[in-house]
Specification:
alpha+beta; binds adenosine-5'-triphosphate; 2 helices
């Protein structure tokens, strides 16, 4: 079976994943991408989501918080701000992060002028990370 090397690294942990895989399904700023061996060269930015990694007969998930992906015909390199296997995700911590971020985003949206202290881009990015982590753990939040 034809494979492509996938390497995912973060500044904190170094290599989080390194293996020959059959297919990667990932989410970039321009939409979902399916990457197979011999894919055309590509450089793109990822958004927070759970990547789907097909390794022969099995499929695993890996949360990435966003970062950069470079694809060549035989290698996919992802440099992510953070990345976690499903069993590394602390659900309670993600719920707390979700609650904090959602309160900030809702407060800002209901009255932007009286919440100029809220960094809305930061709050929205935090919300997106928490939602993606919870989705990996089977919790689908709005
Ligand atoms: P929090 O507000 O809870 O820190 P965050 O989205 O701001 O969440 P990140 O900046 O994405 O956190 O990650 C900081 C570090 O903490 C990374 O090493 C990341 O892997 C880890 N991390 C963050 N949230 C979780 C979680 N729910 N479970 C496990 N590790 C986590």
């Amino acid at each position: 079976m034809s494979t492509i090397l996938l390497e995912v690294a973060t500044p904190d942990k170094g290599d989080v994943y390194k293996n020959g895989i059959v297919m990667l399904i990932t989410r970039s700023i321009v939409g979902d991408l399916g990457i197979l061996p011999k894919h055309a060269r590509l450089l793109t930015e990822l958004i927070p989501h759970a990547m789907r990694i097909k390794e022969g007969g099995t499929e695993t998930q890996l949360f990435v918080s966003g970062g950069f992906m470079e694809v060549t015909p035989d290698k996919i390199t992802i440099l992510a701000d953070s990345a976690e296997n499903p069993d590394e995700i602390d659900t309670e911590r993600a719920r707390e992060a979700y609650k904090r971020a959602k309160e900030r985003v809702d407060a800002f949206k209901s009255a932007p002028k009286s919440h100029e202290d809220i960094d809305i881009e930061r709050a929205e990015a935090s919300l997106a990370r928490a939602k993606a982590r919870l989705l990996v753990k089977g919790e689908n939040v709005a």
